Amino acid sequence: MRLDVVSLAPEAFAPLLGLGVIGRAFGAGIAELHLHNPRDFATDRYRKVDDEPYGGGAGMVLKPEPVYAAVEAIPVLQRRRVLLMSPQGRPLQQADLRRWATDCDQLVFLCGHYEGFDERIRALADEEVSIGDFVLTGGELPAMTIINGVVRLLPGTVGTQACLEEESHSTPLLEHPHYTRPAEFRGMTVPDVLRSGDHGAIARWRHAQQLERTRERRPDLFARWQNEQSVDAGAQAAGG
Questions:
Q1: Last residue within a domain, chosen from 85, 116, 151
Q2: 118 and 20 in one domain?
C-alpha cells in the first residue's frame, strides 16, 4: 500500500519507519511512506503557507494553493482515498481501518496546522476523520495513528491473522484478559481454568470475560452487541 502524507512537519513521521512490526512492514515493502511538505510548493520567496483569516480572528489559516499543488503532484493509484485529519471529522472506528486496509491501494493524508485550514481544502478530501473530541496542534499524530492501524492489518505485517480477529473492536466485545508465566506474581494468580487444559472451558471463560468487561467498561458496545445478537436470532428464526 502507498501512503502519502501532506504535512508541514514531515520529520514527525520518521519514527514510524523503525516502529516494531510497522517499521518492518515498511522495510519489507508491504507499505511505502511518501512525505510531501506544502512549503516546497509555495511560490513566493518566503515559501509562505499560511495567512490571516478573512473577517479577522485569532491565529493563522493554512492557504489552499500550496496544499492543492502538493496533492496534485502525488501519483494517483486506482483505489485511492484522501483523508483529511480534522476534529470536525467522523470519529475513527476499527471498521474504517479494516475498510481502508482491504479496499485501498493508496491513502493520502492531509494534515492541518495553525488555527485551521482554508475551507476550500476540504474539497480535496474523500473523508474527514477525527481521532477524538479534542484539538491538537496539527494532524500529524492522527495521521500516524491511522497509518499504524492500517499497516498492521495489511497481509504480512502481523504473523498470525488470528491475533487480529480476536482483539478488541474486531467485534463489539472487548478482548478477554491474557496471562503468561509465572502462574503467581505478587499474590496475583492465573485463573485455574486457563491452566486446566480444557479448551471448551477456556473458551467459555474467555467469552464470559468479554461480556463482563464490555458491559462494565463500554456499555455502548455491549448494547450494540446485544442488538446484533437479537437481529441474528430474528434472522435465524425467520429462515428456519
A1: 151
A2: yes
- C-alpha span between 98 and 77 (Å, rounded): 19
Q: Are residues 197 and 229 in the same domain?
A: yes
Which residue stretches of the chain have pLDDT < 50? none
Cell of 40: 516546497
Q: Which cell numbers in the block locate residue 97?
A: 481501518
CB 128 within 8 A of CB 122: yes
The label of the residue with cell 502525488 reads: 74
Within a 10 A sphere around the Cβ of 43, how many other Cβ atoms?
Answer: 9
The reply to whether 119 falls in a domain is: yes
| Grid cell digits, residue 36 | 510531501
Give the pairing type, strands 188-189 and 184-185: antiparallel
- Say what the pTM is: 0.87
Query: Which helix (H) or strand (E) segment is 142 a member of?
Result: helix 140-151
For residue 9, how far is the Cα from the chain centroid? 19
CB atoms inside a 10 Å sphere around CB 117: 22
∠ CA 139-142-148, nearest 5°, is 135
For residue range 16-36, what is the model confidence (pLDDT) as tens digits? 999 999 999 999 999 999 999
Same domain, 69 and 100: yes
Domain limit, last residue, from 151, 182, 217: 151
Q: Is residue 90 part of a domain?
A: yes
**Residue 119: domain span:** 2-151
- Cα–Cα dist 223/214, whole Å: 9
Based on the domain organization, do 93 and 189 belong to the same domain?
Answer: no
